[in-house]
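Structure (tokenized):
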């Protein structure tokens, strides 16, 4: 825009000079000085590396940022992957993506529905035992679709303070959906099924159990076969269950004024509400693929995923003028991720920060994303 204005100004100045030079005396004393030539200035390139270098701090140990369009790509890292060893953050570093992995679970459910292996609108008693159902208010009315789109009314287990005790106890023991589900049972419903919408991680724990029942094995196997492998997400694996597939960096969370490296306590946690470890490039690829890759999922799956009763894990969809933004963030103990795809610009913005303490880690991520988005959308 600035270059276009300068070119227009240059054209006007040149035209005026030519007009004033026509007619009148030809004496050298009457001649006007030659118009000053205005040189075009190159466009200012936003320095994303400088931005993330200046964002890391004692509280924000490390950052990874990906900004990509078909024409250009920035992939950079800053700060530390581990404060104790001083290992630097790398662009390929992986970490738990927390709730940003929920859309993968939702997509797997939609894929299985498309294969007629399950019915998204069937009630929970189709798959779950009476022992579990009797501890969930309105369980006879709740459907799988309502678990996936957060309209079930089920209490969110992460609101239960006892979650810390489960995380800290026996860190070497594998803990799965059933272990954390107890925190969400025997709690009053937030509303009757379908009469509201409120984020509930408990719904995804139940979804994980349903998928296991349908598949006859842990759903991580189907997630790999139907999503990770077809998309070439080689850096991504199911946390806890597939921990032999890779390793992830340290994350930092402040609790009772003490800073914890939370990696030790999460390595053996395998939950459908925060399923995968990944890197920024794989997460950007996933979101771009479900939004824009017509060859990846068919129209029926996409309609379930983004339709009027969308089951996409609560991907945020926002209209920005003539552009549509799709986003999902993740916040877990020690880790914060943000994943955005703007369809019309084919723009991916994905950022990882290895801290989660509120408000500083959250506000830092928000500020980072805002600066990048403002630059890319100007």
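Design, position by position:
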């Amino acid at each position: 825009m600035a270059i276009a204005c300068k070119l227009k100004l240059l054209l006007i100045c040149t035209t005026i000079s030519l007009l004033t030079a026509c007619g009148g005396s030809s004496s050298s004393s009457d001649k006007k000085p030659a118009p000053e030539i205005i040189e075009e200035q190159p466009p200012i390139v936003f320095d994303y590396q400088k931005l993330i270098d200046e964002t890391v701090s004692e509280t924000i140990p490390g950052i990874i940022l990906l900004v990509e369009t078909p024409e250009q790509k920035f992939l950079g890292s800053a700060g530390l992957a581990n404060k104790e060893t001083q290992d630097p953050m790398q662009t390929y570093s992986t970490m738990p993506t927390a709730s940003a992995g929920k859309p993968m679970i939702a997509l797997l459910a939609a894929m299985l529905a498309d294969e007629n292996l399950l019915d998204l609108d069937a009630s929970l008693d189709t798959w779950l035992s009476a022992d579990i159902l009797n501890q969930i208010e309105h369980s006879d009315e709740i459907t799988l679709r309502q678990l996936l789109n957060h309209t079930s009314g089920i209490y969110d287990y992460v609101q239960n303070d006892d979650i810390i005790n489960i995380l800290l106890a026996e860190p070497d023991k594998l803990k799965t959906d059933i272990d954390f589900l107890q925190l969400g049972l025997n709690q009053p419903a937030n509303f009757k099924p379908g009469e509201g919408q409120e984020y509930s991680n408990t719904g995804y724990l139940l979804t994980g159990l349903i998928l296991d029942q349908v598949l006859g094995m842990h759903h991580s196997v189907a997630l790999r076969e139907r999503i990770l492998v077809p998309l070439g997400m080689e850096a991504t694996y199911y946390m806890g269950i597939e921990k032999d597939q890779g390793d992830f960096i340290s994350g930092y969370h402040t609790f009772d004024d003490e800073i914890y490296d939370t990696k030790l306590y999460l390595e053996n946690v395998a939950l459908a509400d925060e399923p995968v470890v990944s890197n920024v490039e794989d997460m950007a690829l996933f979101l771009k693929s479900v939004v824009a890759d017509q060859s990846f999922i068919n129209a029926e799956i996409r309609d379930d995923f983004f339709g009027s009763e969308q089951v996409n894990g609560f991907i945020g969809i926002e209209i920005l003028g003539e552009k549509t933004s799709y986003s999902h963030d993740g916040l877990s103990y020690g880790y914060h991720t943000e994943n955005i795809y703007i369809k019309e610009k084919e723009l991916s913005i994905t950022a990882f920060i290895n801290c989660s303490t509120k408000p500083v880690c959250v506000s830092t991520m928000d500020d980072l994303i805002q600066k990048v988005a403002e630059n890319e959308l100007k």
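Reviewer-requested clarification: DSSP finds 13 helices and twelve strands in the chain. The first strand starts at residue 62 and ends at 68.
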